[in-house]
Each structure stands twice: as structure tokens, then as C-alpha cells.
Amino acid sequence: MTGDRALILDFGGVVTRTLFETHDITERALGLQPGTLAWRGPFDTTTDPLWVSMQNREITERDYWMIRTAEVGRLVGEDWTDMKTFVQRARGAEAELVLRPEARDAITRAKEAGLKLAILSNELDLFYGVEFRKRFPLIDLFDVIVDATYTKILKPDPRAYEEVISRIGLPRQACVFVDDQLKNIEGAEVVGLPHVHFDVTHPADGYARALSMLGL
Length: 216
Prior knowledge:
alpha/beta; five-stranded parallel sheet; 12 helices
């Protein structure tokens, strides 16, 4: 019986495909020429010095996306000042296309096996908006959502992990946390939370490892 175990997922990049992977959807939604958006983040760091700066911790993940938001806004002749505008305009109409197929499979499998499911995100509603979250496929399968949009406690602050563990109501050793950002994985290490560092370029591997750690 696995009801005494829990899978804790970061949202952006782990449950959803990254914005790098959906440039075609974004370009179509915004009426931009195919190939206009050339920055590829972790998929090709040579195209994206800004991403490299973020990985080197010279700027934060929020800084990175605020710069990209302003930049894409300018491409359509608008002044975009928050990430939510970018995400909703880029992909808001197509929530289904944004869900990672590997995430759908793993979440469904975990739920069927009786695992508890949680999201621990720094910016779920801040980036995606409440309406998008409500329409997002599978969101109702999650028992717990801890979103720093409201708690104001950002990973890798230890309190973020303690909050989700406390709300799940299981010992931390019964949980596995999955995140694509190394600094957030280091935060999990600090509080002794079992974890998988998710590689967005090989999503199936990350999910297979997490489920295997949970006995599936």
C-alpha cells in the first residue's frame, strides 16, 4: 500500500513543458514569425547567455523571466510587466498542450497507486494565473498545493519544504520531491527531503526515478 507515501512536484518545467519547448505555440498565439524566439535555455545554452547567468546565480529565475516577458511584450508592441501576461498570452488558451505527457502518465500512475500528490511552486498563480490553474488538466488530483505566490516563502528557503511536508502529514522520508532547479534541490537536501533533480531535456527519466524511489 502506497497511501503512506507522497510525490511532491515543482510545477513549471516539471509538470508543464517549459516555455522553451513551446516556442511554436507562443509564436502562433502571438502572431510572430516561426523562429522569432531563439533563446532555448537548458536545451541549447549557446542561444541563451541570460540563462547561463541565471544558472550561475548572477540573476534569479524571476529576474530571467521578467526580462524575457518585457522582451516578448516589445515584439508584439506592448508593455508587459508581469510574467502572468506572458504565460497567459503565450499559452493560456491551450492548457492541454502545455502539460508534459510524461507528467500526465506519472501523476495518473501515482494517483492510481494511492500516493499522495503535492505541488511546491515558487510562482504557480503568479506566473500562470488562477484561471489557468483551475483549467489545468489533472490539477484536481493534487492533495496539497503550496504556492509562494501566497506564502511568500520561496524555495530554497527551508520553510517552504517544511510547509509542504507538514501539510501532506507524512514523514519526510516517505516523500520524494522533484524540481528542475539545482538550488531548489540543494534546499531539499538541507531539510533531509528525498529528491530527484529533474532534467527537462530527459523528462521520462526523472519521473521514472521518482516513482521507483516511491516503490512503483
